[in-house]
Amino acid sequence: MFSKAGLFLLVAFAAIVSAQETGTISGSVYDGQTGRPILGVKIAVDGVANDKNTTDSDGLFKLLAAPGKHALKFTADNYQPVDIREVEVLAGKVTEASTLMTNQRLVTSIDVVEKMDATASTTETMLMERKLSSVVSDSIGHQELSESAAGDAAGALEKVTGVSVVGDGFVYVRGLGERYSATQLNGAVIPTTEPEKRVVPLDLFPSSMIDNIKIAKTYAADLPAEFSGGLVQIQSMEFPSKAHLSVSVKGGFNTQTTGSPFLTSPGDSGDFFGFGGGYRALPALIPENQRLFQGNVAPDQLQAYGRAFPTNWEPTYINKQRPAADWSINGGNTWGKLGLVSALTFSNKPSYHNETQRYIRQDGNTPYIFTEYNDFREYTENARLGAVLNGAYRLSSSHKLLFKSMYTHDTDKNTREFSGADGGTGTNLQSQRLRYVQRSLFSSGVEGDHSFANLLNSVVHWQFTFSSSGRNEPDLREVFRGQLPNGDYQFAALGSSAVRFYSNLKDKIYEPQGDYSIPFFKGSVTGLFKVGVRTTIRRRDFQARRFRYIPQQLSTLNLLLPSNQLLAPANIRPSGFQLVEFTRGTDTYTATGDIYAGYAMVDLNFGSKWRLSGGLRIEDSKQEVLTIDNQIPGSIPVRAFLQNRDPAPAVNLVYAPSLKHNLRASYSRTLSRPDFRELSPFDFNNVLGGFVTVGNANLKRATINNYDFRWEFFPGGNQLIAASFFLKKFNSPIESTILPSNDLRQSFINAKGARNFGVELEMRQDLKALWAPLKEFSVSSNFTFVDSNIQIKPEDAAILTSQNRPLLGQSRYIYNGTLQWARPRWRSDARVMAGYVSRRITDVGTFRLPDIYQEATPNIDVVYQYTHGERNQWTYRVEGENLTNTDFRWTQGPFTQRQYVLGRTFQVGLTYTFF
Amino acid sequence: MNAQISSVRNGASFGTELAAGSWATLFGTFPGVTQTVGQTPVGTNLAGVTLTVANVSAPVYFVSTTQINFIIPAGVAAGLQPLQVKTGSATYDTNIRVLTAAPGIFTQDAATPPKGAVLNQNFSLNTSTNVALRGDTVQIYGTGPGAFKNAITDGAGAPSSPLNQTKSTPQVFVGGVPAEVSFSGLAPNFAALWQLNVKVPTQSFITGRVPVVVFMDGVSSNEVAIFVQ
Q1: Given this model, what pLDDT does residue A125 score?
Q2: pLDDT digits (tens, 9 = 90+) for B62-72
Q3: If pLDDT is split at 50, 70 and 90, which confidence band does A107 have?
Q4: Are the Cβ atoms of B99 and A362 closer than 8 angstroms?
Q5: What pairing do the DSSP bridges indicate for beta strands A828-837 and A210-216?
Q6: Homologous superfamily of A20-120
Q7: Are A458 and A518 in contact (CB under 8 A)?
Q8: Distance (Å, rounded) from C-alpha A464 to C-alpha A663?
Q9: SS3 of A630, please?
Q10: Closest alpha carbon to B214 in B72, B107, B130
Q11: Fewer Cβ close by (within 10 Å): the C or N end of chain B?
Q12: CB A39 within 8 A of CB A59
């Protein structure tokens, strides 16, 4: 006798078996001129029509067919019918058969459309979308993401034309710094985890949770106007056409980390997963709204507060570090009108590097080495957890609801040791620092698509997204020691020695948006009219607290003792070490940034060859930063405020001499606003020992005039040849400057202007076209040349060293090349990926101090993949990253300022696909 | 006792940065030197001790067997420069690196950060019990601002009229807030003493023991504390 659950499982299993006896054909149908999805297209299979076989409001269709070759016929009002022949269906498999349809009056393109094959791969789908886009864009699809060695979005984007990734996942597009890029997740702006930056570090997004990433390089009125280099649009996982469940494990080693001695810091069991913040939390005894120092707090109470902190100043030694680990599981299905997809991914990767760091000063016109730490070691364990849950519910073929949620949590557990000659103190110094930084991002949104056939096929899209990011840095600890004449190191009572630092940032964005679009057909002119609104409401809270143990009577202390003994509770006393809080009045602030935007645009097609889209967006923005010292009763907040109303027009012109060619030209005016901290006229450092940032209340938002030209040739399949030219003219660009002070002081100015131009070349080619024996090989390659020049205001000319220089962070040359080999008979494919980024300025020099350049970094990765099993359910994967093990090197004038290598990484992975 | 120079430091901050026209302190062992304090105008020979920087005679204000305080002549060019000390019995040579500016603020104690040499608006010494008020103009004393608008006679007291102001205007941060500087120049009647008249910012969080840092030509001073209410 079956239980109810058993009966349910039997039926479900039968359903799966039944589904495997047939195959599935799915795809999208787009307007060949506008790229707009077409609702209500009827699809006949082998001449047999079925009312259920129609496209929905996204232009999507899915139908079942017996294994074998089939002919599909697509028909729709106002469009020429399309035939696709020899669509091969395999039992239990999904065959994609997306296509384009052409307006009835545009006869000339019919022949070409009829010859189109079914689109068979995601790469080709991405190319099709790119071809049909009204703006210049580049993209990387799920297929390319999964075949690359990149573990996150930042690594994946390095392969895209004109893109380089700087520092901790910040994207530079067309030589423009992260300031000129913006990021959207599932169509919504997301907050950053960085206190001093506006953009989101893309290393937060595991690549296994991403369906595709597009970079819009030209602006259209329906996009936020605050970008110039590129708008990075991340789409999380899409719904599978059939039930899908797979698990993956990956492990590997780094040549200079795995099996080598390693330093870590004391923690608890949550550390491995990146949730060790609780262990490091500020002790409960410490009062929230009182600044702790002698005179404000009684000595015995101050002693109690000082002893409340744990005695954990020293790193823990590990004889041999473990290998990296990476696990993920993802699955999804559709049940009638409901589709769900979900993924969970986790990785923990240790890394180590040893570098030389130098700080350069200037005497007269000669730079010299002021400080040199030649044994600067960093040990980091990165734990990253990611989760996605996306769902869709189709109310009818014309109405659909979606909800999409993503959570990422990324933690760096970092131990740092260095020693060397310190110019500030004139002695040899030694430092030990323990740091723990947790970053998290949560985004959840609900959206709806509604098509109204009886309202001239107009479409309403609405969306509400809530996003929240956080950066928690609990209990950074650092101790400095100075060298004695006999070579021993003893505790040094420097301003940053025996300190504990806590900071917490929370950033939230509420973003409602909606648009209404209506297509029209009049003679040989077709098009789309679209209006929309978007409100972006951003709220930020930041607070930090700083504590320091200051020795009082040195004769009562043995300063040569290790830190855990020296700073033990017995030595925390009025005559020994006394706790002093030196939290600054500028360490707590709240900020708001609201943008209210409305736009109208039109997308016109004149015959089959010409397409003109243009529109105007108006953005009202208000930024306000309130700095308030909550440890002083009655404290009055200090306010920094910036308000602007900006028109942001865009015109994009496309000339398509044939379906395989596009010639594009566009003009737009976009914006770059200062970040919250950049507006605050105070010095501030979010990281003890890092740059002290001094804001500038007089900063203005910059405006950019963008001019773009591109030629694209799509020979077919996943092949492409493209060439672009771009020119950007900046008015009052915001530039970062560095002041050569002891504490690394950084500020911001509006330069007078700047211009940036460049050329991009891209090619994706099957080599069989060149020589038949190379049929298993294909190459994709891109090259970017950028030239920029910044104009300095006369009042800043005396401060800045270089009167004539490129924009900060701009590399002159960027090259990426991939050679791919695939032999289906061996169930094998492999990729060799090479990249090169030329030198770029990372810090602008002032007061005759030379600019700091990061030198060129070539890189080679290799991936090999093999599948086996009756259903190809097993996939094995071998990866080699950073095979060149190139030096990361920064130079300042004649000196090497920093230099290190990261070692080569080799990983082996296994994926099992259940169904 | 072996005779030697161990280090040459900024006369106010005891940091390593030195500039022409600023006070400097030479630490070492100088056997046979009799501890002596000079006077203004500061002469170039004190108790038989003379000192040259880049072959220019330097005014010497204090000498002992372990320390010599002197003024780096205003005409010394930036760069690595030879320094020579002659006592009655020996000659000592070393090189010092001279910067275009090396701001240092004089201090009252050895706390961290130390109390700065700061006078309140009523010319009384700023202390924890004699505080400045927000909005007051206080006088901060230091050395090493770099070039001045008028010529300087090494070791001589600065004129009270006309006042000799620095060529560049320094940036002063009081509690992290940029403060208005109404005067930056030589203190009248003193040799190489840099005076800054600074308005204490009025933000309410500028209270208690507040850190002060001065920037001159992009070089920062030592951090000192002033007391504000």
Answers
A1: 67
A2: 999 999 999 99
A3: very low
A4: yes
A5: unpaired
A6: Carboxypeptidase-like, regulatory domain (2.60.40.1120)
A7: yes
A8: 36
A9: coil
A10: B107
A11: N
A12: yes
Same domain? B223 vs B111: yes
DSSP state letter for B132: B
Rounded CA separation A150/A167 (Å)? 15
pLDDT at position A122 is: 54
Instruction: List residues bridging with A668 in a β-sheet.
Output: A650, A706
Cα separation, A754 vs A763, whole angstroms = 30
- The predicted-structure confidence for A839-874, as pLDDT tens digits, reads as follows 988 888 877 788 899 999 898 999 998 988 777 789
d(CA A402, CA A447): 5
Q: Mind listing the pLDDT tens digit for each residue in A108-144? A: 332 222 223 333 335 666 667 777 777 777 888 777 7
B19-46 average pLDDT score: 93
Q: Does A748 touch chain B (CB under 8 A)?
A: no
Coil, strand or helix at A129: helix
Residue A106 clears pLDDT 60, i.e. is over it:
no
Domain count, chain B: 2
Residues B111 and B216 in one domain: yes
Which domain range does residue B54 map to? 4-99
d(CA B27, CA B46): 16
Contacting residues for A66 by C-beta, under 8 A, at least 6 apart: A22, A23, A89
Kindly state whether residues B119 and B77 are assigned to the same domain. no
pLDDT-derived band of residue A292, with 50, 70 and 90 as boundaries?
confident
- Which of B171, B203, B210, B229 is the best substitution to test chain A (most A C-beta atoms within 10 A)? B203
B221 with B112, same domain?
Answer: yes
Q: Does B129 touch chain A (CB under 8 A)?
A: no
Give the pairing of strands A324-335 and A244-254.
antiparallel
The reply to whether residue A682 touches residue B177, judged by beta carbons under 8 angstroms, is: yes
ipTM: 0.75
Is A445:A400 a contact under the CB 8 Å cutoff? no
Mean pLDDT across chain A: 84
CA distance B194 to B170: 11
Residue A301 backbone zone (phi > 0: left; psi -120 to 50: alpha; other: beta)? alpha
Interchain CB distance below 8 Å, A585 and B99? no
DSSP A734-784: EEEEEE--TT-EEEEEE-SEEEEEEEEEEEEEEGGGT-GGGTTEEEEEEEE
- Kindly state whether residues B110 and B223 are assigned to the same domain: yes
Distance from CA of A683 to the nearest CA of B (A): 5
Which A residues, 547 through 576, put their C-beta within 8 Å of a C-beta on chain B? 550
pLDDT tens for A513-556 read 999 988 887 777 778 899 999 999 999 998 889 899 988 888 89
**pLDDT given at position A1:** 39
User: What's the half-sphere exposure (Cβ side, CA atoms, 13 Å) at A889?
Assistant: 14
A126, B158, B200 from B119: Cα distances, Å: 70, 19, 12
Task: Please give the sequence-ordered ranges of beta strands (E in DSSP) within B102-144, or none if there are none.
Answer: 104-105, 118-119, 137-143
Which whole number is the average pLDDT over A732-743?
67
Q: Tell me whether residues B78 and A365 touch, CB distance under 8 A.
A: yes
Instruction: Tell me the per-residue pLDDT of A466-512, one tens digit each, with 9 for 90 and over.
Output: 999 999 999 999 999 999 989 999 999 887 899 999 999 999 999 99
Same domain, B81 and B123: no
pTM (two decimals): 0.82
Nearest to A158 by CA among A140, A178, A131, A181: A140
